[in-house]
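Name: TrkH family potassium uptake protein
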Amino acid sequence: MINTKLIYKIIGSLLFIEATMMCYCLAVALYYKEDDLVAFGVSILLIAMSGVAMKYIGHEAENSMGRRDAYLLVTLTWIIFSFFGALPFYISGYVPSFTNAYFETMSGFTTTGASVIDDVEALPHGLLFWRSMTQWIGGLGIAFFTIAVLPSLVGGSVKVFSAEATGPIRTKMHPRLSSNAKYIWMVYLLLTAGCAVCFYLGGMSVFDCVNYAMGITATGGFTPHNESSGYFNSAAIDYTSIIFMFLSGVNFTLLYISLLKGKIKAIVRDSEFRLYISLVSLATVAILVLLMNNNGYDFAYAFRCALFQVVSFITTTGVFNDDAGKWPHITWVILSVCMFFGACAGSTSGGFKCVRGVMVLKIVRNELKHILHPKAVLPVKVNDNNVSYPQQVRLMAFFALYMMLCLFAYFCLICMGVDSTNSITVAISCASNVGPTLGLEIGPTMSWNVLPDVGKWICSVLMLMGRLEIFSVIVLFTPAFWKDN
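Structure predicted for TrkH family potassium uptake protein:
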């Protein structure tokens, strides 16, 4: 049976963490003396009361968590966090529709970065800081954050980590998961702090550099300005963003081993990293040539725009320094491929993940060899690690589910009157947690507010499935999940 009391108890405790996060935003609202102060005060009170109620219901829970408990806990945590996280937007009146408020918050926690707010700059500083904080916490995962800070809070933490972690292969730096989580969070904090300092030196205000740093390192995409990074029109800020987006798309375990431990060869030998940097290089060169030939950009500006957008799309960050919707349509195809693949597993980025791309390429290569040598035994290896047959089957199942979900969302949006180009790029954008789309109705620089409410709820579910890599959510809808045995 599912240990519902334990789930109540843990979610109740996690809500106190969300209330604490909002207290920082309350402090920002107090500092700037703006009208979102009451909204945060009421939201914190409601979250704290709900947390107390849930902890009371689960106060006699047995501290033993099964695999089913972990999958249900992780999915419910993201849904409930987004529900309560939407309250400041809704109560303040700046996002008067709860559908829009929930969409905005789910987009933040899943680091999708798709926004339904037409004028971001009209929001008070507290709400802007809350938008950035949702994506920063969601970057590595809500439960993963808890494992690092309060490992005793989440019983069965290995199972919880498995339900929330991204990528088919897990790399550990330390036998204890809590220590592993702390090392990864240390890398995350160093990246965020380094990014904020570089932005500040590049001319940003303190408030802007903190918000942009959280969005870049979380590969989320929410920014305090409508023009995103294009607001500053600065080559220094653009290249700083490129560097930290690219690093945030690398496996954090690999970053720790190679940069902090000094084992540089580890990152060079990593097959996933090699595919990642190859995709970035090829896509940048292709778009560079197209922008120079078709849009009349000079080499320096074309290179900067091409590299920025490619890194933004492949890391699923979604910030922009130019309107890619006005680029040649062939560049849309290249950027769509980038948003589909995503960056590396074990990073804050979304998408299919480059490691899965490596596995697919090696499986296809082996199948071609099998045609000529039917009896040959050809293992699939990634970084000298054998990929077992069950892992290969899971990979193909993941790919099939990913495509089915995108096609389902595409069909639903078409039925709601959204044009074909936007429908497919919206579907891929949500499933890959990218944010921007490529089209005329909802372009890279536009908000998603034109979508119908039903479409926004479908996209919210798709964003959640994309962040939890589909299986963690889909398994809840299988009859076997709810059977006692």
